[in-house]
Amino acid sequence: MSEPLAPQHGTEPDEIAAAAPATVASRFELAQRAGGIAVPVATAVLAFLIGGLLVLATGHNPLQAYWDIIKGAGLDWLAHPTNTDVANTAAYNFSQTLLQTSSLILTGLAVAFAFRCGLFNIGGNGQYLVGLFCANWVGVSFVNMSRPAHIVVGIALATAAGAFWAAIAGFLKATVGAHEVITTIMLNWIAYWIGNYLFQQGGPLQGAQNRPLDIPISGNVVPSARLPVFWGDAELQGLHIGFFVAIASLVLFWLILNRTTLGYEVRAVGYNPAAAAYGGIKVRTNYVRAMAISGAFAGLAGGLDMLGYQYKIGTSDVQVQAIGFLGIAVALLGRNTALGVGLAGFLFGGLLYGTTHGLQSGSIDPSLAGHLTEMIQGLVVLFVGADVLILYLWSVRRKLRRQRAAAPPAAESPA
Amino acid sequence: MEASTVLEMRGVTKRFPGVVANDGVDFDLRQGEVHALLGENGAGKSTLMNILYGLYRPDEGEILVRGKTVSFGSAKDAIDRGIGMVHQHFMLIPVMTVAENIVLEIEPTKAGVLLDYDVAIERVRDISKRFGLAVDPTARVENISVGQQQRVEILKALYRGAEILILDEPTAVLTPQEAGELFEIIKSLQADGTSIIFISHKLNEVLEIADRITVLRRGKGIDSVPREGATEEGLARMMVGREVLLRVEKKPADPGDTLLEVRDLHVNDERGLPAVRDVSFAVRAGEIVGIAGVEGNGQSELIEAITGLRAAESGEIAVAGNVIGRSSARRMLDAGVGHIPEDRQRRGLVLEFSIAENIALHDYCYPPDSRFGWLFPGRLVQRARELIREFDVRGGGPNTRSGALSGGNQQKVVAAREIARDPKVLVAAQPTRGLDVGAIEYLHRRLIEERDEGRAILLVSLELDEVISLSDRILVMYEGRVVGEHTPDVTEEEIGLEMLGGRRKEPSAA
Known about the structure:
The structure holds two protein chains of two kinds.
Chain A: H1 13-18, H2 24-35, H3 38-57, H4 62-72, H5 89-116, H6 124-140, H7 147-176, H8 180-199, E1 229-231, E2 239-240, H9 242-259, H10 261-271, H11 273-278, H12 283-310, H13 315-320, H14 323-333, H15 338-357, H16 366-369, H17 371-404
Antiparallel strand pairs in A: 1-2
Chain B: E1 5-16, E2 19-30, E3 34-38, H1 45-52, E4 60-65, E5 68-70, H2 75-80, E6 83-86, H3 98-103, E7 109-110, E8 114-115, H4 117-131, H5 146-159, E9 164-168, H6 176-191, E10 195-200, H7 203-209, E11 212-217, E12 220-226, H8 232-240, E13 258-268, E14 274-284, E15 287-292, H9 299-306, E16 314-319, E17 322-323, H10 329-335, E18 337-340, H11 344-348, H12 355-359, E19 370-371, E20 374-375, H13 377-390, H14 407-420, E21 425-429, H15 437-452, E22 456-460, H16 464-470, E23 473-478, E24 481-486, H17 492-499
Helix pairs in contact in B: 14-15
């Protein structure tokens, strides 16, 4: 049999598009090529439109609601950017949006990096949590350390913890073939319960001052471990230098992928593991390594948030934490690219802060306010998945049409 | 012989976005004739036949069946007009019997709804006797050979009353013996008055079976010629549009040191079953050793073991005298084994990567491509630019996505990468699969050149004529063993017999 059973892709572009690519990463590559920048923008617009319809259905004005969100996110500050005084509400709101953006960029990068290696890291939240725990432990202990060292140790340990947490999933994938989606979700729950254990009444990391009061919250990070705040007041969640770390991470992400042999291997494995193995690349090693780097971004986010503005963490914080999950939407909307993740992180950062702080009870059903972000997040994930789905359905339709005509896909492409 | 024209296609044009697949093609078929449609991959042969079979509508032009203009909305319309088509990939239901497959959709029924199986078998017996196509109506399709399945497809078309039969690359899936049987069938159908359109890109078989030959090139009908007076060279020139060197010209081999040695090799397949059994052979510098065999007789596993992609159960592989223990793809690459894999799209290339990135697939981790883990994309592009020129890759530059190239150019990228690494041993698996005449010619010439450069070349191909024309020695694999060794003056029939396990020989050490 000299002809392969699968239709050979010829030069005809839609023949290539119709063939089902092997990996998640190559599917996204395909969607990206098919849709360019238009699809993510359309996805976001559509998600906002449907969110607006929901607001409308509750008898409120969606335009008013969105205007509130924009103001709540401090985007109106951009009209007068010279006034950086955080006593100004717009400036303060904007600094808070950037604070959220920093975390979202990093958890988004965590998901995006794994994606580029063909892995779906759902475990950003768990990796973020272990980062928070470690940074809190370092920040509360070692009170005699000098400031730069204390900060560096805290951040480094948080990053390493995130990397380790994700690498467990990578290791299981490489050795016994356990699917990373399953294992990262399990690791999320393990991190969740570890957090509940650590900070509960009598838990090993419960703050000493909280113990007599029966408050399940950690100790406070000491000043020597706190990140410098460059905009606003440290006591009022000022914007800390972690923002620049997040921006630098975007650059780092791009550099690793496009300018290092490591990134070359990650992309090769992500697009086509068989070809990568043939090229001499160790595919299993790359699974572990890519997961570790992925988790490092999420752990870094946790470290920066803890030493940057949270300073303490309680069991209730552990339970409601969702920033790692939002990272999935950020990565999907940002198409797993550095620039895209940066923009999507800013969009979700504004949304997150704007919906929780901007919405007036007059312009939206109060019970809906906090959930609007989650709705839009859900819609984005749905639509981002949907355009891949639409491409897939399109190829199935073509196949079916040909089969109905009782013929195989033309082996000879008309080129 | 001058017979009535049963079919005429006039000025048929079919456009797809960006390409004209058929450009004013004329084609006619006479009663009882075998008319070959010859052309390279992508010349528009299948498009033309899909139009005739009602699967596509032509943008321009008309189709006349027995002098009447017809317009087909679907394959059913074409079948009603007595046109049948046997596709390259069979459309049979494996778990059903031959008879069930043949009568499908027009079953004889009992009580209006139930299949009358006895009548079905009877009808299939009748039709197979009438046309001289022996099949067992009660056999399950999954249990019969590929050649038999093809007969079932032909019978299916005849059962539906086909008087015009389109055979799309029918020999592509057959062994030489089966192809010979097919030609007998074609001749008997022809004698019975059936008119046959025979699609192919193989010149020798077209000259053997066809009465007339129409050549398509880039969607245009170039010429229709009678078989008498047609030559392979002339047809190839029409297909490609320039002179083509069909016979591989080569000097006698001048073998030097043994560069690849395989000793007592045992390799298992995915399921853990023995795929390569006790294989030993050697390839010396400056010679091409070809491995012939029907697909799935251990060739793939053998190559994967030699290239470090699959661990051997036992045995040794030595490159230039050094036994490679604990082999891995990287070790084999570094030892000097180049590999043109059998599936360039699944393994040979990362289709989403640019040409430059694909060319760096083995060497990205070494200077000058990178240093201390830092990649230099500019150097990758520079290197790609040189190789694109040297290997005449067309259709893009260093930054073109590899998936956008045609199959022939993709294969040139793979060959460029492997050869440019200056390997001692070059393993070429199905190097010309799916390629057109021009690209095949190029790759064949290049392999001979690399042989003459002093490389040891191991060629694995399912195309017997390719193995025979390129190789200096030929090994035949059957069920994981080397069952024969030959010099290139062997006949296809002799090897064909061994490929089917017809003759066993003790595995011969080379």
